[in-house]
Design a protein that fits this description.
About 65% of the residues lie in helices and about 0% in strands. The chain contains 16 helices and no strands. It is found in: Membrane.
């Protein structure tokens, strides 16, 4: 009994030691504070995320166009698909601040995932389990050069930067083909941005008017935009570091191309031709290497919609030898293989465009709107133009009447009193 009392007394005296209780209490409160801060940090980082933390390789997206098995974007805070739906023009300060907050959350989420040890192979694009052999791509380029001499005969000022860029891609995106394609498609839009900027400048100064050439480059940029959206849907922009690298290098690349186009348009077109041919070889190797895997995976919804509804980009539609508006069919998009096959065919058309732009005999036809020129066989007037002339006139008359009805409905809704002046008829715009 005495021993028990002495033990209790010793324990009691120990707890009464100066500062001991305060130390234990502070350590407990510090632990609770740590977990509370960790939870808040996680919620803040994922505030804009709609997908679950462990996103699967395939998530169903149901709609009326039969895209039940379409791939869903894995990272809404970085996905261009989400931003295309939500964002609107605004002041530069607001847009910059919004992007800073969005990317800050992305950095926080990346750090949080690394601390948790998230397996990237369970998320897009790693969950797709796709590969790309860089050595095989280089071998394809060598065979193409042996047959055509496109690289060995290129000017050194475009050939040397091109070879450096290819080595950089092999180093930065090893075993990450989707991220590599997203990077390529991001950079691939810069030439057309720069061409349009310089051509607009020339037209503002009244130095040069090349309306059809601007239309051609805009069509190319529109096509590359949808390539980029497809890669974003596959998770190519999931990593913050890839986005940081792509956007900052694109700014530098854009201004270099502006200077190059001002100095020598032919040299700028030649450099773009080299990059487009590299894209063709890369996609071709990718399709060959992953054929069975790609045919077993569904295509993203954006790819299904784009290639089902958009007229395929072809160089014939914007100034080839015949100049006619030819609609080239594309393979229907059902699987991921079909999507990449269509992209590879698009890149071949970009190659043809860049090759023709270096030939000023062909560009000579793109000096103005085709409606300013007299129709002749050289302009490639479609043979069925006269056949459908009356039908086209009737369609235009019907469209004008529908437009007038819509305008009247909008005007009547605007004069109607009440907080909600929208009319159901206003949605009948053709």
């Amino acid at each position: 009994m005495t021993g028990f009392i002495s033990t209790r007394a010793g324990v009691s005296s120990t707890w009464r030691e100066p500062g001991r209780w305060q130390t234990i209490r502070s350590s407990r409160s510090g632990g609770r504070c740590y977990f509370r801060c960790r939870r808040q940090f996680h919620l803040w980082a994922r505030r804009d995320a709609k997908a679950p933390g462990k996103s699967a390789a395939r998530e169903p997206v149901s709609n009326s166009t039969g895209e039940a098995n379409a791939l869903k974007p894995p990272v809404p805070y970085g996905s261009m698909l989400e931003r295309e739906r939500k964002e609107r023009p605004g002041s530069a300060g607001i847009l910059g601040l919004r992007n800073f907050v969005r990317e800050s959350r992305a950095i926080a989420l990346d750090l949080y995932d690394k601390l948790r040890g998230i397996d990237e192979s369970r998320r897009l694009p790693g969950a797709l389990a796709l590969t790309l052999d860089d050595a095989a791509v280089n071998e394809r380029e060598k065979r193409r050069d042996e047959l055509t001499g496109y690289l060995s005969n290129a000017p050194w000022i475009s050939r040397v930067p091109y070879e450096i860029a290819c080595r950089f891609l092999d180093w930065a995106f090893t075993d990450r083909p989707i991220a590599r394609f997203w990077f390529l498609e991001t950079v691939a839009r810069m030439p057309y941005f720069s061409y349009l900027s310089v051509l607009h400048l020339y037209e503002t100064f009244n130095w040069l008017h090349l309306a059809e050439l601007r239309r051609t480059h805009f069509a190319e940029e529109w096509n590359e935009l949808h390539h980029l959206l497809i890669m974003s849907a596959l998770g190519g922009d999931a990593k913050w570091s890839d986005r940081f690298l792509a956007y900052h290098l694109s700014i530098i690349y854009y201004w270099l191309l502006v200077v190059m186009y001002i100095v020598s348009p032919r040299l700028s077109y030649n450099f773009s031709e080299l990059l487009e041919k590299h894209a063709v070889d890369t996609y071709e190797q990718f399709l060959t290497e992953n054929e069975h895997r790609l045919k077993a995976l569904p295509a993203p919804a954006i790819a299904v919609r784009y290639y089902a509804n958009e007229v395929a980009y072809t160089f014939q539609a914007f100034g080839d030898e015949n100049g006619s508006a030819v609609e080239t069919s594309r393979p229907p998009v059902q699987t991921l293989y079909d999507a990449f096959l269509n992209i590879r065919l698009d890149e071949e058309e970009h190659v043809r465009t860049m090759e023709a732009c270096q030939n000023y005999d062909l560009v000579e036809r793109l000096t103005s709107s085709p409606y300013l020129r007299e129709q002749s066989p050289e302009d490639g007037v479609p043979a069925h133009a006269d056949k459908h002339a009356e039908e086209s006139s009737a369609d235009q008359t019907g469209s004008r009447a529908a437009w007038n009805r819509w305008a009247d409905a909008v005007n009547q809704a605007g004069r109607r009193p009440g907080p909600d002046t929208r009319s159901e008829d206003a949605d009948q715009k053709p």
